[in-house]
Amino acid sequence: MSAIRVESETPWRAPGVDVEASPLVAALLRRLDGVLGELHEVSLGALSDPDVVRLLDAATAASSRLTSLECVTAAEADRRRLGKEIGARHTHQWWAGRSRRTHAEAARLTRLGKALASDQHAPVADALASGSVRVEQARVIVEAVDALPVHVEAETREQAELVLLELATQHDARELRRIGKRILDVVAPEVGESHEEAVLAAEESRAIAGVELSLVDDGEGRCHGRFTVPSHVGAMLKRHLLALANPARHTDAELRDEAGEWKPLRRRLGEAFVEYVERYPADATPQTAGVNATVVVTMTLEQLLAEHATALLDDGSRMSAGQARRLACEAGIIPAVLDAKSQPLDLGRTARLYNRAQRIAMGLRDGGCTAKGCETTASGCHAHHDDPWSLGGLTDLALGRLLCPRHHRLAHDSRYVMTIHADNTVTFIMRT
Questions:
Q1: What is the three-class DSSP state of 427?
Q2: Domain boundaries, the chain
Q3: Staple 382 to which of 89, 158, 254, 330, CB 3.0 to 4.6 Å?
Q4: How far apart are CA 213 and CA 230, in angstroms?
């Protein structure tokens, strides 16, 4: 098959479409273009507040009406198979190329247009065409009615659609989706409960089947991840992280970033997730081959004692020795200390962590973070060894203290000197 060189730059037109629009369509399009042009020329700054509200409301309704026109016209183009002449596999692919919409969005609007063309969804089509509902509301209503069991009678389906349309005047698409799952409780209570149970069971099965998690280390000290879990698990995790990120648990300095600006919620949640993982009880970690799922950090005695050194993790990545010492105080980290000949000198055990009784006693004694001026409560603190157990220190109550995550990092940061005062508070000063 040989290629045909196109000599002209005339606009591409769908096969079977007249070069010139019909007088009716041409006149309507000119009027539409003219009105839109005039509205865009209006100086918004010169309008009164009520006029700004009127214009926004009218533009919102007009957007719905135009989207309705898009949907039904795309459905008609699909019925005529206008993309066939250029070899498009689906009408939405042909439309996406013309409109520069994504294929996914063009497909969604085409599907909605085909649904609205049916007699079943005529009320939704009329509501969208009049601008009284938004396009996402229309899609949710259509999907909710179509999801009803096959044994539900046509009259009940019609009633369900009308009820959802009425509720659309008070609820957005997200709320309508939630209501739509239980619409039978309103229009047919006798079958509503069993239907809801079936819907929830199906959702839960799909959620379990779709669980996945991927983690990728970028080689620059960061790990990126993505996961999909059931909704209730996501809600539980979010609730836990929000509790850890609660501003009441943190000082003003902890809530600000390196530039002194307030940290956005996504960063505070990220920091909470780090704390969540680091503080997971070591004795609760699952076992494989009889060994807890802990991370082993290997370093020489010289590295352990040095202010500026690195340690090797058992997955081949590295961390600073200070970071390893900090994690060894609280998390499920096993440091394997070697001598100059790579012979083990000390294989630390997570049993050296402070136990629950000691933590409670420490909380009663310290009341919270012992760093001077810090207001973090005991529940938000780590248990820190004043005399590092890696240097022979003991896990005794008298030799430990509570430090919040930030000050615990400073305690193991070689750039800072920690001073213990007579009142058991500590201060940190950066080395000069």
A1: strand
A2: 23-36+50-207, 228-277, 279-353, 354-430
A3: 330
A4: 12
The answer to whether 374 and 368 have CB atoms below 8 angstroms apart is: yes
| pLDDT tens-digit readout, 116-166 | 999 999 999 999 999 999 999 999 999 999 988 888 888 888 998 999 999
For residue 37, the one-letter residue type is G
Candidate ranges 18-22, 28-32, 136-140, 352-356; pick with highest mean pLDDT: 136-140
Read out DSSP for 237-290? HHHHHHHHH-GGGS-TGGGB-TTSPBPPHHHHHHHHHHHHHHTS-GGGS-EETT
Q: 428 with 407: CB under 8 angstroms?
A: yes
Q: Is the Cβ–Cβ distance between 157 and 165 less than 8 Å?
A: no
Q: Of the candidates 412, 18, 282, which has an alpha carbon nearest to the alpha carbon of residue 428?
A: 412
pTM over 0.90: no
Decide: 368 and 401 in contact? Cβ < 8 Å: no
CA–CA separation, 177 and 20 (whole Å): 43
Q: Report the relative pairing of strands 295-300 and 291-292 from DSSP bridges.
A: unpaired
Cα 60 from Cα 133, distance rounded (Å)? 10
If phi > 0 it is left, if psi is from -120 to 50 it is alpha, else beta; for residue 235 that is alpha
Closest CA to 16 of 111, 102, 82, 75: 82
State how far the Cα of 137 lies from the Cα of 169, in Å rounded to an integer. 10
pLDDT in tens, 94-127: 998 888 999 999 999 999 999 999 999 999 999 9
Decide if 341 contacts 314 (C-beta within 8 A): no
Residues β-bridged to residue 299: 337
Dihedral, CA of residue 56, residue 61, residue 66 and residue 69, to nearest 10? 180
Which residues are paired to 428 by β-bridges? 418
